[in-house]
Amino acid sequence: MKRASEAQLPPRPPPPLPSSPREPSAPSAAPATPGVIGQHYDVLSKVGEGTYGSVYKAIDRRDLSEVAIKRMKNTREGEGISHTAYREIALVRELRHPNVVSLKEIFLVGRELNLVFEFVAGDLAERIKQLRETHATFAPQTIRHVMRQLLDGLGYLHRSWIMHRDIKPSNILMSVDSHVKIADFGLARIFRSPLRALHHDGPVVTVWYRAPELLLGSKQYTSAVDVWACGCIMAEMMLTRALFTGSEAKGNELQQDQLVKVFRVLGKPRPDEWPKLTELPHWPQVSQWSSQGYADLLAQRLNGAQPSPEALSLLRKLLKYDPDTRLTTDQALQDSYFVGSDAHADAGGVVAPSAGASGR
Amino acid sequence: MASSSSSPPAKRYLEFQDSTHSAHWLLSPAEVAEADMRHSFSADPVDVFKAKLLYTQYLTALGRRARVRQRAVATAIVYFRRFYYKYSFLEHDPLLIAPTALWVASKVEECSMQAKMLVGHLAHLDMENSYQVHHLLDAEFHLIEALRFDLVVYQPYLPLTEYLAHPALCEIIEASSHENFRQTAWFLLNDCFRTDLVLCHPPHTIAQACIHMAGTLLGLPSSKWLYRIDIDTQQVEEVTMTLVRMYDYCSTMADRELQEVHAELTSIQWGARRPPRRAN
């Protein structure tokens, strides 16, 4: 998948490499794990790598706290610091919310930018995988606890006119006690009075979590794309596997497989439930597809997970086809799914052992 | 690891009050004046004002040439002024810092252009300037470090737009004067960037001062509306006075004077850093 690994902390970090002699900022050579970064950080291990650069787990010598250092590579020759890096630097520098990853500092070593974040030991993708492999499931209150924090953090972003545009489990950091923090702002954008239309940024959101309006080529999408991704995540927590697992088509081609996967669970969208559907660039083509095999089977798909009626009802409203009627984060947090529940009790919820019905 | 029990309640959204702009970059006029003295290339403090004005115009011209949007140019001007609050004109060549600021601002404001293209425009604008892409690449790191990586700048354009659209304000001013009033306010706002006002005052205060001054200039009662909303009268007054002083000053200043400052700046030896002049 595209951009799969930004800031993600894979399940089992590789064992700490022997600390090589301090490595100066040698650009092109394959970067070894440095023993020290900057003046204050001792590197423990490399915990992630991607096109953007690498993430290291390190200790701040000054207060012995654990940090994650995202070390940005210079991407395009002759273009200096990339767009993506600027988005991330500019935004994380400003944001402050308990459910948004917090930046401790930024510094330069030679020409390498180092972003120092608080360290969070895991992420939601890893937690889901762990449960799937042990045939366990999330306790319902853990799902609610995660969703509440996710929507809270996202609501803060949206009210601050920021779209994340890459919400997916591996970008949701999660501590052992299920405290959630949204990470990776490389695709995020301020959408208040943008100077350049959003669609010029090319495809956004990893394809499994990509909202239908994006899949159908919408040029004027909104922060509702993040809410769709939250819906996908909620279902994924119930199932311990992703809900819509299409394979990505290359380039600007129609994401046919992903659309098919969505239609098989939610049915084919109709203009009467989504008025602007007919204006979307790919709709003329997609509308020709036979409706055969597409029906609303969401409840059946989730049957094994035995969601409560409130959970299922909220999920449907997060996965509304029409972005204009899809819930906003504020509306979602007002939903009866949350309102009747005790946030403190949810926070204490732990992973329940498998009730035997976790299959499929 | 984050103990949420002891931390204050979460903010609803990002406000100017919580921004790096507010926390690190609202300087007092005295601080700026002091830095000007320290960093000046000349014994006359007015020369620093002129140098900054000159490079504000340079950035505007370069932005227009490179077709960079106004907001990115405004951000570049703020970067430039923040940089020379920290560093001296003697240490760093403004002919390099100005295009670098524009380049970085264009990337941050999501309307980026290629360094190659920008360098091409440089040569057309000023024979003196023969900086190349690799100079910009070096200066980029230097610039953002000087800016403490605080890249989001709150501009007064948005608050001004909001004020101008306010129904109560529209009501106070007769319809036939609306357009004139609007244009005057925008005109004043653009001129604020010729001064260090953007370093010293929050964006909404600058926008309020433009509303106030546009009313005064046109004899319209816009200030009546201003006093109804929550404003810091003293700061608005301060902004207005700074603008008035700037206009007074500029009206008596000959073009020649800016040219002289330009000559003086370009005569500074920036060591081996500045590449030799282009052959004509």
Automatic annotation (TrEMBL), chain A:
Any one Gene Ontology molecular-function term assigned to this protein's record: RNA polymerase II CTD heptapeptide repeat kinase activity
What sequence ranges are listed for the domain Protein kinase?
41-338
Q: Which reaction does it catalyse?
A: [DNA-directed RNA polymerase] + ATP = phospho-[DNA-directed RNA polymerase] + ADP + H(+); L-seryl-[protein] + ATP = O-phospho-L-seryl-[protein] + ADP + H(+); L-threonyl-[protein] + ATP = O-phospho-L-threonyl-[protein] + ADP + H(+)
Give me the residues that bind ATP, please: K70
Instruction: Give the highest taxon in the source lineage.
Output: Eukaryota
Q: Name one GO cellular component term.
A: mediator complex
Quote the biased-composition stretches of kind Low complexity, using this chain's numbering.
Answer: 22-32
Which SMART domains did the record assign?
S_TKc
Query: Where is the segment annotated Disordered?
Result: 1-34
Quote the PROSITE patterns the UniProt record gives: PROTEIN_KINASE_ATP, PROTEIN_KINASE_DOM, PROTEIN_KINASE_ST
Which residue ranges have biased composition labelled Pro residues? 10-21
Keyword list (alphabetical) reads:
ATP-binding, Kinase, Nucleotide-binding, Serine/threonine-protein kinase, Transferase
Family per similarity comment:
Belongs to the protein kinase superfamily. CMGC Ser/Thr protein kinase family. CDC2/CDKX subfamily.
Its recorded name reads Protein kinase domain-containing protein
Which organism encodes this protein?
A: Prymnesium parvum
TrEMBL record, chain B:
Q: Which UniProt keywords apply?
A: Cyclin
User: So which domain of life are we looking at?
Assistant: Eukaryota
A molecular function GO annotation: cyclin-dependent protein serine/threonine kinase regulator activity
Report the Pfam families cross-referenced here.
Cyclin_N (PF00134)
InterPro entries cross-referenced by the UniProt entry: Cyclin-like_dom (IPR013763), Cyclin-like_sf (IPR036915), Cyclin/Ssn8 (IPR043198), Cyclin_N (IPR006671)
Name the protein family: Belongs to the cyclin family.
UniProt name for this protein: Cyclin-like domain-containing protein
Species in which this protein is naturally found = Prymnesium parvum (Toxic golden alga)
